[in-house]
Amino acid sequence: MQHTMHINPEGELSRQLKAAAADKKPLRLVSGGTIYDVQVHEHEAAPSARPGLDPARVRQGLARSAGALRGVDLAGLKQELREAREQDSAGRPA
Question: How is residue 31 annotated by DSSP?
Fold first, then answer.
């Protein structure tokens, strides 16, 4: 499975990755005495699944919803949801 790390496109790591890609050579990373030689394959990022989605607005919405379930019996709510999912509905068997 591939691991993804988002980095600052203006930062030093980004500059080194671009240089390694241009030179067609691995980028050597050193962390606490451990050396990692990273093969660099430059390609375009996949398009967003939600074009136009503003991450800042999503974070604001999540912050505003904090505490919305305060006082709700969460265990009971989860049990009700599980039971509802087991029920057949018109055209959609459980």
Answer: E
- pTM given for the model: 0.45
Average pLDDT over residues 4-13: 91
Supply the pLDDT for residue 87.
83
CB atoms within 10 A of CB 52: 5
Residue 33 zone, left/alpha/beta (φ > 0; ψ -120 to 50; rest) = left
Output the CA–CA distances (angstroms, integers) from residue 25 to 33, 57, 89, in the order listed.
21, 40, 57
CB 33 within 8 A of CB 26: no
Question: H-helix or E-strand containing 79?
Answer: helix 74-86
CA distance 61 to 55: 10
Q: In the predicted model, what is the mean pLDDT of residues 64-78?
A: 93
Give buried/exposed letters for 11-35 (b at 16+ CB in 10 A, else e).
eeeeeebeebeeeeeebeeeeeeee
